[in-house]
Amino acid sequence: MRVLVSGGAGFLGSHLVDQLISRGDEVVVFDDLSRGHREQVPNGVILVEGDVRDSSKWTEICAQFSPELIHHLAAVNGTRRFHREADIVADVNVNGTRNAIEAAKATGARLVFYSSPESFGEQSVMPLANDSNSVFTPAHEHQRHSYGASKYLGELLIHHAIRDFGLDARILRPFNAYGPRLHGDADGQVVSMMLLANPIEVHGDGLQTRSMTWVGDVVEGMLRVGDLPDLCGMSFNLASEEEVSMLNLASMISEITGAKIVHTGENHGDSRRRVADLSGNDKIGWKASTSLVEGLAQLR
To answer: DSSP class of residue 298?
Structure first.
């Protein structure tokens, strides 16, 4: 199969590309390398360096490669950037997704759009399901939800394209994927940030919870949603059933690294709980199988 992966040099994208190549697919990666790395793109994969907001790049890639499947992961990520760079977050995430949709329409490719549990904002009713409302605080308070709102708009654009243009598109929401290659810098994700930190910073009381999900499990679900027929218009939460508080996560990582734990101020718009409704995953036969203890042991 000919597969185009936007954001394929990044954390999740590169792990997906590895698996696509290992099974014999032809793969093109479209990435601006702002967060991805060239060395994470394996030999035999064409890397097109560019901005997903550039529609001409999409047209060029599709004309030369004619993808049958598009995995659209490219987005501005990193929690601390959401408030600081809200304009860039919204621009890249919304307009990049619009271009991905146009590319899929032009080529007849199946499209997998990567949304996020952040698309539900500060929804407090758990578990988060496909019929849960998205709840965002007023923009004048903070712009923390630029990312979540952009992902909500992405889902809206996907369903519009399905309804009005017959696009074969599916939506995935990975919940706190972690594993090798995850960014651990100031704009990174929590597991890698904690593994590299000394002291380990815990925001607020640390009782906010997440479902940390091993990257290998997530990629297995990504492949299934891209491959299986008759999933058009469906959304899937890829999450572990194991709910952990940030304080407990910090304690587990402290045991590995020996770093001390300190409490700092709360983050804007940080959800107190984030638990996924996984009932729809019966359709793809997917369930996370790697425990947090097992996953963290592989990152020692």
So the answer is: T
**Do the Cβ atoms of 42 and 19 come closer than 8 Å?**
no
Looking at domain 2-178+212-240+276-284, its CATH architecture is 3-Layer(aba) Sandwich (3.40)
Q: How are beta strands 200-203 and 177-178 bridged, if at all?
A: unpaired
Burial of 200 (C-beta count, 10 Å sphere; 0-12/13-18/19+): buried
Q: What is the 3-state secondary structure (H, E, C) of 184-252?
A: CCCCCCHHHHHHHCCCEEEECCCCCEECCEEHHHHHHHHHHHHHCCCCCCCEEEECCCCCEEHHHHHHH
> pLDDT tens across 33-43, in order?
999 999 999 99
Domain ranges of the chain: 2-178+212-240+276-284
pLDDT single digits (tens) 77-116: 888 899 999 999 999 999 999 999 999 999 999 999 999 9
Burial 278-291 (b: 16+ CB within 10 A, else e): bebbeebebebebe
Is the whole model's pTM more than 0.90, yes or no?
yes
Per residue, the 3-state secondary structure of 236-286, as one string, reads EEECCCCCEEHHHHHHHHHHHHCCCEEEECCCCCCCCCCCECCHHHHHCCC
Handedness of CA 266, 136, 281, 184 (dihedral sign): negative
